[in-house]
Design goal:
718 residues; alpha+beta; six-stranded mixed sheet; two-stranded parallel sheet; 24 helices; 53% helix; disordered C terminus; binds adenosine-5'-triphosphate; Receptor-like protein kinase
Length: 718
């Protein structure tokens, strides 16, 4: 019997079970995989919870809401408190703002810091102070009492510290010299402040800018750490933080919230604090974004600035220096009064001196008496005074180079004019008996006494000096080119590459918008900078060129020598030159050990009463210019107490002083891991713990210790 052909429906019935099976398998797979995902997520959540509980430190929790507890002042209130921000009330000036003395309605004295510009950087500093310092209370930290935030006005209100800053106390002209006991207490206070920040806060806080101007002194001269503008909260699990990546995160939030709400809300933790829209943010955000695309970028900008200045210098040197420079002072360079010589001459003189260290060993004439010194000076190359050791210091060198670059541009450097004046006066003082008794710097008096007439009398002399000066300019220009142009051009080409990368890349909508704003505004910024530069400006690493404020105090210590005052306390985007740890200055991660390094520098500064870079008038003292190098050389020579401030005479505790210096040396080790942590540092200072082993290279070398005795022993043996 022929079989009946299968109908299509029967085919369907036959295919169904396989289809159903497939669906079942698929369903099973999906169920299993999703349950695996859920289980893993749950496990991860449990692990995270456990991790947080276990690692919850024994410290106080960091109170991010605390800023909201700060008093919010109105601008009018602060205006009244400071007598309309009267100049007479100015008690200090830093890189970011001016500090005024204010009187509250209840008669309490306040330190009111008005941020001078409105940019992303000042905004970041402002927010940092609110978010970090605002949430901390410690007897070793200056208390932030409140703030004012109205349109583009940013003001911070602190407790008033009657003895101002350690910077002023150590380096001001007054006769007041900090006693040893006070110095030691201040060292202890700063160490305890850092102990609180690193170990007492959860998460730990890294200050990032420990230096004398950020240590304020109360009525008893006890130190309190201030200025959290560059501080960072250490995020758990992170091995470090990059300043720009953090800023960028914050900036992106700022940017987003501005876009979404039309208001520039601050970080999410402080929704109550809001800032009005301002285009400056767009520009600076873009700038930060660009900077974040290369960790070296911030430096590159400065290098570019240097190039501009150098070019300016090159272009103008022949013509302008002749017209503007006034008098050359070649003779005074080698003369007695080195304090009055101009920077060019000084620099050439130093350069000559350094060359002699390098090649002719002229400094080591008395071979017998200075043999050891000769050995140590020989190894310092031409750039020994900024080279502390190793490649990590290159960033510092860059800063120094930039600064010098700015200094050798006579048309843009007001100090040249000042020195021109003082030289004019000097000519008078050197050559005319009636003026002999006059003090330097009294131009009106000089004019009254016939300065104009005398000036004519010395015209011939002047023209000779002008020629000398021109020669010297040229010599320095050539030296500068030889030494650094190669390095600088490499860097600027790197910057160009980055710029093209930047122009081509980053097509993300917000970023692109930011970029366009950035380029538009940056050109404006450059023009403005150039104008500022031309119009009697000064160079600051934090702000680039800025107008010189004659009343400026604090970080601008006009009493100091030209070189030191600029270099020792100017804040960059990444800390302050000479105080910043090599790994961080090298654009690395900001860690607790960076604060330890800065503390090491600070200890040396406090003990010695010198700035970290302190070029004195006498070129013979150049070996002491770099405090850290000098200290290391003294340590090798087994003579660290020579570092102690001469003004203390013998009135200090030698045991404590050598403990401090040796501790500083351990803090200044290149490898961050080798530096002690702040707990060890405090215990060592308290005498509760032995000094961590001083690095081998800074221990007195056997030849230095035993060299003499061996020589003595020889005759006996014979
Ligand atoms: N609370 C305060 N009480 C008394 N004086 C203060 C107070 N805060 C700051 N000053 C003075 O103002 C000066 C400038 O302080 P500010 O914190 O603005 O800048 P800085 O730390 O010197 O420099 P930068 O901001 O560039 O790091 C200080 O050196 C100090 O003399």
């Amino acid at each position: 019997m022929p079989s009946r052909p299968l109908s299509p429906s029967s085919y369907n019935n036959l295919a169904k079970p396989s289809f159903v099976n497939k669906t079942r398998v698929l369903f099973l797979i999906l169920t299993i995989s999703s349950s695996v995902v859920i289980v893993f997520t749950f496990l991860y959540f449990l692990y995270h919870l456990w991790y947080n509980l276990v690692n919850r430190s024994r410290t106080i929790p960091f109170d991010s809401n605390a800023p909201l507890k700060l008093q919010r002042f109105t601008y009018k209130e602060l205006k009244n408190a400071t007598n309309d921000f009267d100049e007479a009330n100015v008690i200090g000036k830093g890189g970011s703002g001016t500090v005024f003395l204010g009187i509250a309605r209840d008669g309490k004295l306040l330190a009111i810091k008005r941020l001078d510009t409105f940019s992303l950087q000042t905004e970041r500093e402002f927010q940092n102070e609110l978010q970090i310092l605002g949430g901390l209370r410690s007897p070793f930290l200056v208390t932030l009492l409140g703030y004012c935030m109205e349109r583009n006005k940013r003001i911070l209100v602190y407790e008033y510290m009657p003895n101002k800053s350690l910077q002023e106390m150590l380096f001001s002209d007054g006769n007041l010299v900090l006693k040893w006991s006070q110095r030691f207490e201040i060292i202890m206070d700063v160490a305890k402040a850092l102990e609180f920040l690193h170990f007492g806060c959860d998460p730990p806080v890294i200050h990032g800018d420990i230096k004398p101007s950020n240590v304020l002194l109360d009525s008893d001269c006890r130190g309190k750490v201030s200025d959290f503008g560059l501080s960072r909260i250490k995020v758990e699990g992170e091995f470090g933080m990059d300043l720009f990546s953090q800023d960028l995160g914050k900036s992106q939030e700022l940017w987003k919230s501005q876009e979404l709400s039309g208001n520039l809300a601050t970080a999410t933790e402080t929704p109550a604090i809001s800032t009005p829209v301002d285009s400056a943010h767009e520009v600076d955000f873009a700038l930060a974004l660009q900077a974040s695309s290369s960790s070296n970028n911030s430096r590159c900008y400065n290098v570019r600035a240097l190039n501009l200045n150098s070019l300016n210098y090159n272009a103008n040197i022949a013509s302008e220096s002749e017209v503007k420079s006034g008098n050359g002072k070649g003779k005074e360079v080698s003369g007695v009064d080195l304090g009055a010589v101009d920077w060019t001459s000084k620099f050439v003189a130093y350069e000559d001196e350094l060359s002699s260290v390098d090649h002719s060993k002229e400094l080591n004439v008395n071979a017998n008496s200075v043999n050891d010194e000769a050995a140590s000076t020989k190894q310092w190359g031409k750039d020994w005074w900024w080279r502390q050791d190793g490649s990590g210091e290159l960033c510092s060198k860059d800063y120094v180079m930039e600064w010098i670059g700015s200094q050798i541009c006579p048309s843009t450097n007001p100090d040249w004019d000042e020195e021109k004046k003082s030289t004019n006066e000097k000519i008078e003082l050197d050559n005319s008996t009636p003026l002999d008794n006059l003090e330097d710097g009294h131009e009106p008096q000089l004019q009254e006494l016939g300065f104009g007439k005398l000036e004519k009398g010395f015209e011939k002399k002047e023209s000779k000096w002008k020629k000398n000066r021109k020669k010297r300019h040229k010599k320095m220009q050539e030296w500068w080119k030889e030494e650094h142009l190669d390095e600088i051009s490499k860097k600027s080409s790197k910057l160009k590459k980055l710029e093209t990368k930047w122009k081509k890349g980053f097509k993300i909508p917000h970023f692109d918008l930011a970029r366009r704003f950035h380029f538009h505004r940056r050109n404006k910024f450059r023009e403005q900078n150039q104008d500022d530069c031309d119009a009697n400006g000064e160079f600051s690493f934090r702000r680039g060129w800025r107008k010189k404020n004659k009343n400026s105090m604090g970080s601008d210590m006009w009493s100091g020598d030209l070189f030191s005052r600029e270099l020792s306390s100017t804040t960059s985007m990444r800390g302050t030159l000479c105080y910043v740890a090599p790994e961080y200055g090298g654009c690395g991660y900001l860690m607790e050990k960076a604060d330890i390094y800065s503390l090491g520098v600070l200890i040396l500064v406090i003990v010695s009463g010198r700035r970290p870079l302190h070029v004195l008038a006498s070129p013979m003292k150049l070996e002491k210019a770099n405090l850290i190098s000098w200290c290391r050389h003294l340590a090798q020579a087994g003579n660290i107490l020579e570092l102690v401030d001469e003004r203390l005479k013998d009135d200090y505790n030698k045991e404590q002083a050598s403990l401090c210096i040796n501790l500083a040396l351990t803090c200044l080790q290149k490898t961050p891991e080798l530096r002690p942590d702040i707990g060890e540092t405090v215990r060592t200072l308290k005498g509760e713990m032995d000094l961590p082993p001083v690095p081998f290279e800074f221990s007195p070398s056997p030849s230095k210790l035993y060299g003499k005795s061996r020589r003595k022993q020889k005759p006996n043996a014979d």
